[in-house]
Amino acid sequence: MGEDGQIRRDRVIIDTDPGIDDSMTILMAFGEPNVEIIGLTTIFGNVTTEYATRNALLLCERAGHPEVPVAEGSPEPLKGGEPRVADFVHGSDGLGNLSLPAPTTKKVEESAAEFMVNKVSQFPGEISVLALGPLTNVALVCLQLQDKAIYHAVCHARG
User: Fold this and answer.
1) Tens-digit pLDDT profile for residues 57-80
2) Most CB within 10 Å of its CB: which of 21, 54, 128, 156?
């Protein structure tokens, strides 16, 4: 509870590679009254980064939160090479090959790392990053902030 007596909601960025498992986590987070999802950032893992972004936009729309920004992350590991995806588990689209229509909303222009850096700067000490997939975007944030005093985010890795 905040000083003003209002219930404080945790500000969360979910860094995700939304296949079936992450989709359930994201939908549950949208339903949690003490969580304010301030953005989804995407990464390869269960699917390619392009499909991860598509799925994140669809999830925001389906959850009734099309206003939540989605920032696309790195399409490959830091050391380069082709990312491995789990299409044998989640289907080629990451959502069990449901053939859902394309999202009507668009991703934001800034990259996932830029989005996280901007939000951590905007809300120092108030952001939690829930990392559900590979940590490439989080590593890029660390590289950008290595010499800055605003390096104040809590990171929970669960992927």
Assistant:
1) 999 999 999 999 999 999 999 998
2) 54
pLDDT, one tens digit per residue, over 24-57 is 999 999 999 999 999 999 999 999 999 999 999 9
Query: Could you give the CA distance from residue 13 to residue 5 in angstroms, rounded to a whole number?
Result: 25
For residues 104-110, give the mean pLDDT. Answer: 98
E strands in 8-126:
10-16, 35-42, 70-72
Extract the tokens encoding 27. Answer: 């939908």
Which domains can be identified in the chain, with CATH numbers? 10-157 (3.90.245.10)
Q: How far apart are CA 87 and CA 48, in angstroms?
A: 9
Centre a 10 Å sphere on the Cβ of residue 87 and count the other Cβ atoms it contains.
Answer: 16
Q: Burial level of 101, CB count in 10 A (0-12/13-18/19+)? A: exposed
Q: What is the pTM of this model?
A: 0.88
Statement: residue 149 has pLDDT above 50: no
Q: Which residue, 15, 20, 23, 22, is CA-closest to 40? A: 15
CA atoms of 133 and 136, how far apart (whole Å): 9
